[in-house]
Amino acid sequence: MTDQLVTIARFPSLFEAEVAQDRLKAEGIPCFLTDTAMVGLGLPNVVGGTGLQVPAEHAAHARALLVEAPTADVDRTSEEPESITEAERNARRAWRAALLGVVFWPLEWYAIWLLVKVGLSDDTLRPGLRWRALVAAVVSGVFGVILPGYLFISILQ
């Protein structure tokens, strides 16, 4: 028996990877997930998603099992694509800009501008995006307004 592991699939979400892992374990195939930390942090595109690895001698059978059984009970072909409003798009952009603005300061003002657009919009945000907008507002407020103002005042004195 060889100890070499082979990546047989990659999944964009940790949930899908765990469903596939459970399917293979139910069939008695040992399997392991890779890159779960990056996907858990919300950065699946950095590593290409969560990898599912099996021993090389089980790779063909594992691939066949995953092909014959979908990773979720939902028929995704019948679903309409999720529509995203302009306010939601701006809230996501503001969140990213605020976090990147900690390193590159001018992005904080871009995040603030996007948050103003979100606030003036008639659209409502989903709960998951509300907390992102709130985090973006706090981070941009601290790093884009309060900290530079404090530094400016201390320079003048």
Number of domains: 2
User: How would a textbook summarize the main sheet?
Assistant: 3 strands, antiparallel
Name the beta content range: 5-15%
Which H/E pattern describes the elements?
A: EHEHHEHHHH
Kindly provide the radius of gyration, computed on alpha-carbon positions and rounded to a whole number of angstroms.
Answer: 22 Å
End-to-end Cα distance, whole Å, is 73 Å
CATH topology group of the largest domain: Alpha-Beta Plaits
**Average pLDDT rating:** 78
Helix content: 55-70%
Number of strands: 3
The CATH class label of the largest domain is: Alpha Beta
Topology:
Layout: E1 5-11, H1 14-26, E2 32-34, H2 36-40, H3 44-47, E3 50-55, H4 59-68, H5 86-101, H6 107-120, H7 127-156
